[in-house]
Amino acid sequence: MIDEKLLEKFYSKIFSVPKKRVSIAIGVTSIILASYLNGISGKSFFVMRYFFIGLALIILLLIFGKLLESGFNSRRTFFLALFFLILIEIADIIAIHLTNPDYIIISPSVVAFILTIALYFTSKKFSYSAPLIILLVLYPVDYIFSFSAPHRTLAYTISTIAGIFFGHLFIRYLGRDEELKIPELLRSFVLYWLKGLPEIFETALKKFSRIHTGRVHLIKVGKWSIIAPEFHPGPFRDIGGAKLVNEALKYHSMFLHAVSTHSTNPVSREEVERIVNVAGDYEETSFMKPYSVSGKNFMLKVYPAEDFTLLIIHGKERIDDIPQEIRLMAENFFKNPVVIDAHNAYMSRYQITPEDLTEIYFLMEEASKKPKEKCNELKVYYSSEDYENERICGKLALLVMSFDGELHGILMIDSNNMEKTLRDYLADVGREYGIELDIITTDNHSKTGISPKIGYMPANMEDAEIIESFLKKALENMDLKDAGVLYSSEDVQIRTMGEEFFKKMDFAFRKYGESGLYLFGVFSALNYIISFILAGIIL
User: Fold this and answer.
1) Are residues 152 and 273 in the same domain?
2) CA atoms within 13 A on the CB side of 372
3) pTM
4) Is 534 within a domain?
5) Contact 285/308 with Cβ under 8 angstroms?
6) InterPro entries under this entry (predicted)?
7) What digits encode the pLDDT tens for the residues 210-246?
8) Same domain for 51 and 141?
9) CA distances from 18 to 76, 196, 336 (A)
10) Is 509 exposed, middle or buried (0-12, 13-18, 19+ CB in 10 A)?
């Protein structure tokens, strides 16, 4: 599985640009510094050179941004132009201090490779002619502000074409895996991120999707409905399954994270809608009294009913993404098992192990042998509150159930995960009111990578005050009412990302990631070297 923290760090850093006033300050500083270093015959001349080259770059990038349907807004375009200007200033420094001052005429051609890559990965309608035209149009401005340097039009053109060719080779290198098509995927991801249109990336993901059958469980307790789909609410931000929790909570009182992994991420909004629109063919049933069994690393809470069994798996120290196969195991012991991953003990980089799965299996076997106690009177109480911060995605919900006076409750915190200390703290609050709480999170990924300041952040003790306030207020106003129970389940086939996709992406990151960075550096340096070599032998 790909390290999501690495991905989030990557795109948070890559797509973060400073505010315009900061970019202007950087630009002015670079112009002053480069003019001071290069101003052998006149510093004011170089100030004009860099000002007009920079201005021309901004205009050209804005024009071609429209033509190529670039994802860059004006702020990003301004920063990109500034970046290219600094590369040109560096080329001028090399020409004046290390080679020949006349060679500054070829300086803009040194950005051809990086310009090609930037346009390719940020434009919907890329053409290799675009970087060539931009740099050829820039040449007259460059020549006017190159003091007495003679024309080197041919050298400039050839070095520009060479840089563009390096760009082509770099893209071909990343695209050697014809099945995965890394450049296409990366390009669609960048465009999605820049334009804020998830369907761009979703369209690319559909090409690699796999049909997966998952069960959607629906439970009604009184007038409140619970949905527990065996599809994963990820991978990040507003792509595909990341919308699952938010969409489900529009129609249901609670979302329970049924056993599933990232391989079952729905690829698009349409697939999510198919899940949440399952109507359900409900049948009336009744709960029996809940109980629990405990092992070394996990605790299993069992809510038995006549026609189904709700099983909530708690990690004592850690838990994350239990695979769907656990539900198949549970079918050996229970009728219509609804297996829930409580997702309530976050540990960085933890992945479930075969030993963990074995323990859960034996816990289910042990639980199935426990005698069931009939519940003569079921009463319920429900409360919810909209709340959002950088860790909580929009909702807190509490369902309290009285089984012949024995109180149990499910507290749903709409977050990606939660730290064990917060879970234990809230469980103690519940016990103060005589209630055994199952505290769960939704594994909602709608905030994952939403900005450079917000990443994969579990709920923690910073959230204790607001959640405790909601919980105490709800329990102090608790009004239990008689309620019936309905249950429905339906197997749904949708397009998911599939395990093979993540394996290939992980392989591609390992195979092309580091080597790709090295190759990028080599081609960037070669663009400089070839430009200066050609400047010395061709006019």
Assistant:
1) no
2) 15
3) 0.84
4) no
5) yes
6) DUF2070_membrane (IPR019204)
7) 999 999 999 999 999 999 999 999 887 788 899 999 9
8) yes
9) 9, 18, 54
10) middle
- Can you tell me the distance from the alpha carbon of 139 to that of 155, in angstroms, rounded to the nearest whole number? 12
Q: Is residue 204 part of a domain?
A: no
Structural domain contains residue 1:
no
Q: What torsion, rounded to 10 degrees, do the Cα atoms 97, 103, 105, 110 define?
A: -80
Residue type (1 letter), 392: I
SS (H, E, C) 29-43: HHHHHHHHHHCCCCH
Please name the residues in contact with 408: beta carbons below 8 A apart, sequence gap of 6 or more: 290, 303, 400, 401, 435, 436, 437, 438
In angstroms, how far apart are the furthest CA atoms of the chain? 99
Counting the structural domains of the chain, the total is 2
Q: Is residue 3, in this structure, part of any structural domain at all?
A: no
Spatial separation of the C-alpha atoms in residues 84 and 79, rounded to whole Å? 9
Task: Answer yes or no: do 170 and 221 share one domain.
Answer: no
CA torsion through residues 113, 116, 119, 120, sign: negative
Q: In a 10 Å sphere around its CB, with 0-12 CB exposed, 13-18 middle and 19+ buried, how is residue 494 labelled?
A: buried
Cβ count within 10 A of residue 96: 19
Q: Is 363 helix (H, G, I), strand (E, B) or coil?
A: helix
- pLDDT tens digits for the chain (539 residues)? 445 444 554 554 455 666 767 777 777 787 787 777 776 556 777 888 889 999 999 999 999 999 999 988 888 898 899 999 999 999 999 998 899 989 999 999 999 999 999 999 999 999 999 999 999 999 999 999 887 888 999 999 999 999 999 999 999 998 887 777 888 888 888 888 888 888 888 888 888 889 999 999 999 999 999 999 999 998 877 888 999 999 999 999 999 999 999 889 999 999 999 999 998 899 999 999 999 999 999 999 999 999 999 999 999 999 999 999 999 999 999 999 999 999 999 998 888 999 999 999 999 999 999 999 999 999 999 999 999 998 999 999 999 999 999 999 999 999 999 999 999 999 999 999 999 999 999 999 888 765 544 556 899 999 999 999 999 999 999 999 999 999 999 999 999 988 777 777 777 777 777 788 899 999 999 999 999 999 988 76
For residues 388 and 331, state if they share a domain: yes
Residue 167: C-alpha distances to residues 172, 184, 373 (Å): 9, 15, 70
Kindly state whether residues 144 and 230 are assigned to the same domain.
no
Residues facing 302 on adjacent strands: 291, 311
Beta-carbon contacts of 398 under 8 Å, excluding residues fewer than 6 positions away, are 381, 382, 383, 384, 409, 410, 411, 412, 470, 471, 474, 475
Helix spans in 227-268 (H):
244-248
The boundaries of the domain holding residue 322 are: 213-493
Rounded Cα distance, 91 and 93, in Å: 5
C-alpha–C-alpha distance, residues 63 and 43, integer Å: 30
Same domain, 61 and 144: yes
- Show which of 493, 515, 530 is a domain's final residue: 493
Same domain for 169 and 250, yes or no, is no
The answer to whether residues 164 and 270 belong to one domain is: no
